[in-house]
Write a structure and sequence with these properties.
By secondary structure, the chain is an alpha/beta fold. Among the domains are: about 230 residues, Rossmann fold (3-Layer(aba) Sandwich), CATH 3.40.50.150; about 150 residues, 3-Layer(aba) Sandwich (Rossmann fold), CATH 3.40.50.150. About 30% of the residues lie in helices and about 15% in strands. It has 16 helices and 17 strands. The strands form four sheets. The protein has a seven-stranded mixed sheet with strand order 13-12-11-14-15-17-16. Strands 8-7-6-9-10 form a five-stranded parallel sheet. A three-stranded antiparallel sheet has the order 3-5-4, covered by helices on one side. The radius of gyration is 27 Å and the shape is globular. It is a single-pass membrane protein; Single-pass type II membrane protein.
Length: about 550
């Protein structure tokens, strides 16, 4: 029956039809614009998949050509996944386990066999899981105990059983806080250092330190409660899996060695460098190892070199001490206290002393502000260009907003499971600074082809290193809970095999871990297709943030 216009309004049918029409318009708008702006996380990776993608668990059709200028779907490339094989496959580190290159070395005198020797091309095999691998013990409990099945290496337990580095108790490996130098416990040792030299104020003027030859990193682990961030490092050597133990515990650590090449840290980075019976011949080769420490130690910083009393009367160690005294005097170091406790990236080492840092007016840089003001105040080595400080403050503000408004609440990341974080291109360290109140730590990476901001990161009281993402990272498999990048892959695809980079990310990320990748949609579609082929769950937020979660799947 026809309804007249007055009757239509009188019967109040207009509001209903108007509302229905409005809803229809909204639906059509969302359908045709393909936007996530109003509903940010409902679009999972299925809407981004290539039509030719296979559902097979080992072979997936992916449209990409990583070496091409067209980073999107330039041709169909089939990825077939397989597990790495061999006796070291579970703990495989491509650039440190390149047996062919190591066997071909002409000399091992300067620890060349412990340095990086990256295979070409980068491997694309996937790392198998240990047989009974479990979700890691959460922090802070993990500082003192981890699952044995996650790092099933008994050699160090037996080798150091009398020094209480690590003890196997049932299903766990326990870390009682002992060590070669910590016979009365690491807490006692840390307090002894501060009592010996009152100028050292842990967590105030001493914030970022380097622990050389760190063992299982108990020194750095216990300093965390004093707001000290220690970069613990040691080579991959006969002390089986010590750095793997450290990272499984949730303690910052990296694999490195003082050999023939510079360490991958900037000049004048650390407030304090510590070495407890670390077996480094500091005076060797004209003092190159100690000169390398001089390069990365901040002017006014401290070098603490300690050994247990058993070595005090050893003739060789006496000679080393005397040689060290002569060397440090020649470098203008000052011995501030001698006491006893009653209880880079392929740059060669040199014999020269690095210059003190100055600004463009020739003025020496000041020591950074005390922690925590250091995190947000102007870094001493920030450029003096008029716009530099404004750019730095804007970057800090932007990351604070992105983290608080998006990352923490809207993308489905369970931050209570996140302890070890890797920022693949850290810039000024704004992402790490924005996370400072969470119980986690961030390894800030500055890629070798991006502006060098690593000294600014250290000035802020954060840690990091240089790296080339065309190669594998110096860490064991399954050592990070979250990987983050911001517009890294747009430039990376010009130099690197993007598939190999994703395989490396899969290697170092723990099952259940996350990737957060900010980039353009062209890059996100390619990366998403690769992650999907690895059986990861993938979602996209507002057409600029890929959120991936790694599962336990292996081919």
């Amino acid at each position: 029956m026809a309804i007249s216009l007055p009757t239509f309004f009188q019967e109040r049918k207009f509001p209903f039809l108007f509302t229905l029409s409005l809803l229809l318009v909204c639906f059509l708008f969302l359908f045709f614009t393909d936007s996530l702006t109003l509903n940010p996380l409902v679009r999972t990776y299925s809407s981004l998949r290539s039509p030719s993608s296979s559902s097979s668990p080992t072979t997936h059709a992916v449209h990409l050509n990583p070496s091409s200028s067209d980073f999107s779907s330039s041709f169909a490339h089939t990825l077939t996944w397989k597990l790495c094989d061999g006796s070291v496959a579970v703990d495989f580190i491509p650039c440190l386990d390149n047996s062919k290159a190591i066997k071909a070395l002409q000399s091992r005198k300067h620890m060349e066999h412990r340095e990086r020797h990256c295979p070409r091309p980068s491997p694309r095999c996937l790392i198998p899981l240990p047989l009974a691998y479990k979700v890691p013990v959460p922090w802070p409990k993990s500082r003192d105990m981890i699952w044995y099945d996650n790092v099933p290496h008994p050699k160090l337990v037996e080798y150091k059983k009398d020094q209480h580095w690590v003890v196997k108790v049932g299903e766990y490996l326990n870390f009682p806080g002992g060590g070669t130098q910590f016979k009365d416990g690491v807490d006692r040792y840390i307090n002894f250092i501060q009592e010996t030299l009152s100028d050292i104020k842990w967590g105030e003027n001493i914030r970022v330190i380097l622990d050389v030859g760190c063992g299982v990193a108990s020194f750095g682990g216990y300093l965390l409660q004093k707001n000290v961030l220690a970069m613990s490092f040691a080579p991959k050597d006969e002390h089986e899996a010590q750095i793997q133990f450290a990272l499984e515990r949730g303690i910052p650590a990296t694999l490195s060695v003082i050999g023939t090449q510079r360490l991958t840290f900037p000049d004048n980075a650390y407030d304090l460098i510590h070495c407890a019976r670390c077996r480094v011949h500091w005076d060797a080769d004209g003092g190159k190892p100690l000169l390398e420490l001089n390069r990365i130690l901040r002017p006014g910083g401290y070098f603490i070199w300690s050994a247990t009393p058993v070595y005090r009367d050893d003739e060789r160690d006496k000679n080393v001490w005397n040689a060290m005294v002569l060397l440090t005097k020649s470098m203008c170091w000052k011995v501030v206290k001698k006491t006893s406790d009653s209880s880079g990236t392929y740059a060669p080492l040199t014999r020269c002393i690095s210059q003190l840092p100055v600004d463009n007016k020739g003025q020496y840089f000041n020591w950074p502000s005390p922690w925590p003001q250091r995190l947000t105040s102007k870094p001493p080595r920030l450029s003096v260009e008029p716009s530099a400080e404004e750019k730095f403050l804007e970057d800090t503000k932007q990351w604070s907003t992105v983290v608080s408004d998006v990352y923490l609440d809207k993308i489905g990341v369970n931050w209570s499971t996140v302890r070890n974080v890797l920022d693949m291109n850290a810039g000024y360290g704004g992402f790490a600074a924005a996370l400072i109140d969470l119980p986690l730590w961030v390894m800030n990476v500055v890629p070798i082809d991006e502006p060098d901001t690593l000294s600014i990161i250290f000035d802020r009281g954060l840690i990091g290193l240089y790296h080339d993402w065309c190669e594998s990272f110096n860490t064991y498999p399954r050592t990070y809970d979250l990987l983050h990048s911001s517009f890294l892959f747009t430039s990376l695809k010009k130099r690197c095999d993007v598939v190999a980079t994703v395989v490396e990310m899969d290697r170092i990320l723990r099952p259940g871990g996350y990737v957060l990748i900010r980039d353009n949609m062209e890059a996100i579609k390619v990366l998403g297709s690769i992650f999907h082929s690895l059986q990861w769950s993938v979602s996209v937020y507002q057409d600029q943030l890929l959120v991936g979660k790694k599962g336990f799947w292996r081919p």
